[in-house]
């Protein structure tokens, strides 16, 4: 369906007592994914909506349809085919798509989301079938508001917008127009995991061009065919988006995804005190890693304030994690300056030190005094092996996109000095991960407390099976978003992330040998509900809620959209 017909169709139905009332008839009904039930339309609905000749005679249930769709899914030969199949299903019938996803969440998350979504993003212009979302172009900044209005949605109709400029998609870099798929994928997880109503969200591509020459030279490429615009024009475009989105949809939470390190933090700092907004890679990631770290610290029987943390890859995610671990050490009794000194950050030039000329502003607080490391071995810069040998870290975090960076020598050195080494290779997708959990468990003799960004199978080592938690922001942002929506929060605060992390950590018992540091993805709906309640309460406690929270547990439950067919009436 084109955006225009989607607009028309959206205007053509409204909710009434749990039912839909629509002025659409015939093929137009079948072409509206939020309305369409296909073979599950009842005889009465078929008669009323002009569908009698347009569907085969049998009337199926949603369960019948899920069974058939699941078989079709399994006949797809590769994960990319499966991803394409699911996209088409979503474009045809959203309830069916979300019901099947909900029933097979652990199995299908890696296909709709990370890691397969990375493959789909690279192939976007080639696998393209239908548009989904809003495409905003830097070449037409004056059209931003009109383009958002093209959705046909009104001021009270939107809870959430996910936007990406696609400069740093996962760990695979700049994928231009394909970046719309990370916004679509994140939103699918919001609905599957937290019951965010799929009719009340918008994925947005902020197309500012691309520096990916492969795309620029690809005749099929669907985005703006020029290099990335930067500087004042970029800022004005982002500003036009924020202003238009807040004017048209004053309740919407604005989620930023996969921006480059130069822009992500700057944008957040500019808008965080003006509108309800957060950066998922910095803050969502920081909070889920904090949750895993809290679980690990409990499992290891140590204290947060005693941790020595090495962060390898001091970009958007790495420094976002460092900030939240530092704040957690402070909450556990450490002085702010002392907590900051317990974190060592490395980037391309090695350990960050205060004599480096081109540190980014957000890296500066973590730069070590050059004098402190004057005697450390240099190989160009001070590399990870030397830092690990000197620092004897309790935690090693990977957000570098460097596959294999956590070598056997580095891990064995770390494990030689710490009882329960905490190791989180978080880079996505699989081709970027710093080490595989199986290696980490083996090299640490089963003592490692491990979590990854991608989903991985359990590891068996010397008779113990280790369940590997997925420290992916997908365990956090859906509940955070739901909590913010339920409270109608007007800002997203640091306190909301801290409380969300505590809520997730409270759901696991990392003390049992082999236990996961994080809840299982199959339990995501329950996790998200718990996070949402904590976040909504925190919003109220900080005076950021715009509705009264009389019974937050019930309010969260009531707000969760369920993948069930509603009656459709002709109106
Ligand atoms: N698990 C999660 O939930 C999660 C969340 C966000 C990001 N990530 C992953 O983390 C990785 C980084 O994402 P980001 O958004 O922070 O990207 P980013 O580009 O902002 O940061 C990556 C950093 O790694 C540095 N780096 C590159 N090569 C290096 C090397 N050889 N040695 C040391 N540092 C090096 C870069 O200079 C940059 O500062 C990606 O793979 C992404 O998928 C995971
Ligand atoms: O999308 C993910 O899987 C997590 C994270 O936002 C990332 O950029 O890697
Ligand atoms: Mg991301």
From TrEMBL:
Residue ranges the record marks as coiled coil: none
Family of this protein: Belongs to the malic enzymes family.
Origin superkingdom: Bacteria
Cofactor: Mn(2+); Mg(2+)
Malic enzyme NAD-binding domain location: 282-540
GO molecular function: malic enzyme activity; metal ion binding; NAD binding; oxidoreductase activity, acting on the CH-OH group of donors, NAD or NADP as acceptor
Keywords, alphabetical: Metal-binding, NAD
Entry GO CC: cytosol
Protein name from the UniProt record: Putative malate oxidoreductase [NAD]
PROSITE patterns: MALIC_ENZYMES
PANTHER family, sorted: MALIC ENZYME-RELATED (PTHR23406), NAD-DEPENDENT MALIC ENZYME, MITOCHONDRIAL (PTHR23406:SF34)
UniProt-annotated binding residues for (S)-malate: 428, 472
SUPFAM superfamilies documented for this protein: Aminoacid dehydrogenase-like, N-terminal domain, NAD(P)-binding Rossmann-fold domains
Active site: 113 (proton donor), 186 (proton acceptor)
Keyword 4Fe-4S annotated: no
Residues reported in the UniProt entry to bind a divalent metal cation: 257-258, 281
Entry-linked Pfam families: malic, Malic_M
Gene Ontology process terms (BP): malate metabolic process
Species annotation: Dactylosporangium aurantiacum
Cofactor binding description: Divalent metal cations. Prefers magnesium or manganese.
Domain Malic enzyme N-terminal intervals: 90-272
């Amino acid at each position: 369906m084109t955006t225009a017909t989607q607009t028309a169709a959206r205007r053509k139905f409204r909710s009434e007592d749990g039912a839909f009332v629509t002025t659409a008839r015939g093929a137009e009904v079948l072409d509206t994914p939020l309305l369409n039930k296909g073979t599950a339309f009842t005889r009465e609905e078929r008669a009323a909506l002009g569908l009698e000749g347009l569907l085969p005679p049998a009337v199926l249930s949603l369960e019948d349809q899920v069974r058939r769709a699941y078989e079709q899914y399994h006949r797809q030969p590769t994960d990319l085919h499966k991803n394409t199949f699911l996209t088409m299903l979503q474009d045809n019938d959203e309830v069916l798509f979300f019901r099947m996803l909900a029933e097979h969440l652990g199995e299908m998350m890696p296909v709709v989301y990370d890691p397969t979504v990375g493959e789909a993003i690279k192939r976007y212009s080639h696998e393209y079938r239908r548009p989904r979302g809003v495409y905003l172009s830097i070449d037409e900044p004056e059209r931003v508001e009109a383009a958002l209005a093209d959705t046909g949605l009104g001021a009270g109709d939107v809870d959430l917008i996910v936007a990406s400029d696609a400069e740093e998609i996962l760990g695979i870099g700049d994928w231009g127009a394909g970046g719309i798929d990370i916004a679509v994928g994140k939103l699918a997880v919001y609905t599957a995991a937290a019951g965010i109503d799929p009719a009340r969200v918008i994925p947005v591509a902020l197309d500012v061009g691309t520096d990916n020459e492969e795309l620029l030279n690809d005749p099929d490429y669907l985005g703006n065919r020029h290099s990335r615009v930067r500087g004042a024009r970029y800022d004005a475009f982002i500003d036009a988006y924020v202003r238009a989105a807040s004017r048209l949809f004053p309740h919407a939470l604005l989620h930023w995804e996969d921006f480059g390190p130069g822009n992500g933090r700057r944008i957040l700092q500019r808008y965080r005190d003006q509108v309800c907004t957060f950066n998922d890679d910095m803050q969502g990631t920081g909070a889920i890693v904090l949750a895993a770290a809290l679980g690990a610290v409990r499992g290891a029987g140590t204290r947060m304030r005693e941790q020595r943390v090495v962060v390898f890859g001091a970009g958007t995610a790495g420094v976002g994690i460092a900030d939240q671990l530092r704040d957690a050490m402070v909450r556990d009794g450490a002085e702010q300056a002392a907590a900051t000194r317990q974190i060592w950050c490395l980037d391309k030039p090695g350990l960050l030190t205060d004599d480096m000329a081109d540190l980014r502003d957000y890296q500066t607080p973590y730069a070590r005094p050059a004098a402190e490391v004057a005697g450390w071995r240099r190989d160009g810069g001070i590399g990870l092996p030397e830092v690990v040998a000197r620092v004897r870290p309790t935690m090693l975090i990977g957000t570098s996109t460097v596959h294999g960076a956590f070598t056997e020598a580095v891990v064995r050195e770390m494990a030689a000095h710490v009882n329960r080494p905490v190791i989180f290779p978080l880079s996505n997708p699989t081709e970027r991960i710093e080490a595989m959990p199986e290696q980490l468990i083996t090299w640490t003799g089963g003592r490692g407390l491990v979590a990854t960004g991608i989903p991985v199978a359990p590891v068996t080592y010397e008779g113990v099976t280790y369940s590997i938690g997925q420290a992916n922001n997908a365990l956090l942002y859906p509940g955070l978003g739901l909590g913010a929506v339920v409270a109608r929060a007007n800002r997203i605060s640091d306190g909301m992330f801290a409380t969300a992390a505590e809520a997730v950590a409270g759901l696991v018992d990392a003390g049992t040998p082999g236990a996961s540091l994080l809840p299982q993805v199959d339990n995501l709906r329950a996790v998200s509900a718990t996070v949402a309640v904590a976040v909504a309460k925190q919003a109220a406690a900080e005076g950021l809620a715009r509705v009264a929270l009389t019974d937050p547990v019930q309010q969260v439950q009531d707000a969760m959209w369920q993948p069930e067919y509603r009656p459709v009436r002709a109106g």
